[in-house]
Amino acid sequence: MKSVFVVVVLTVAVSSAAFGQTKGAEASADSLALAVVQAVLQTEFECDRALMQGDIARLEHLVYDGATRTDPSGAMTDKAQWIGTVREGRVKYVSIEREDMKVRIFGGVAVVTGIVDIKWQSNGRDNDSRNRYLRVYVHRQGRWQLVAHQATRIAQP
What is the pLDDT of residues 33-67, one digit of tens each? Predict the structure, then answer.
């Protein structure tokens, strides 16, 4: 969580420099930037909770209909395929722990990068991996939705 705070502070500092020149505008930009980053991170963690709880309705709400997911093996799935593995019980997420998260906002698009330690069960087998990941969110209809996910396994020494 410490790294999330640092990223938020850095994002706010960079964002405030990009907005307006007056102190009032900077304060307003700081508040706006912080609120946007917090909303994106909230969505990020809600996705994780929904995956671990097998909350299909919540996943349907948080993931954009045209979303794609590329796993560490390079396999690409669409929203229906990804959520279908959870719905059918073929994949059960046990734990998802994120670190070194960075959030970058580009208007109505947010890019989140970081490291994730993930444990899951697939067809009755326990699995775990440590991955670098990139997620793209889009702000539409008043909320952030996941549109793309890419994970790359970090080689173990």
Answer: 899 999 999 999 999 999 999 999 999 999 999 99
Name the domain count of the chain.
1
pLDDT of residue 23: 42
Domain of 97? 2-153
For residue 109, what are its two tokens? 């698009």
Average pLDDT value for residue range 114-136: 96
User: What's the Cα-to-Cα distance from 117 to each of 63, 131, 132, 135, rounded to whole Å?
Assistant: 21, 7, 9, 15
Average pLDDT, the chain: 85
* Per-residue buried b or exposed e for 119-148, using 16+ beta carbons within 10 Å of the residue's own CB: ebeeeeeeeeeebebebbbbbeeeebbbbb
Cβ neighbors of 5 (< 8 A, separation 6 or more) are: none
CATH code of the domain in which 81 resides:
3.10.450.50
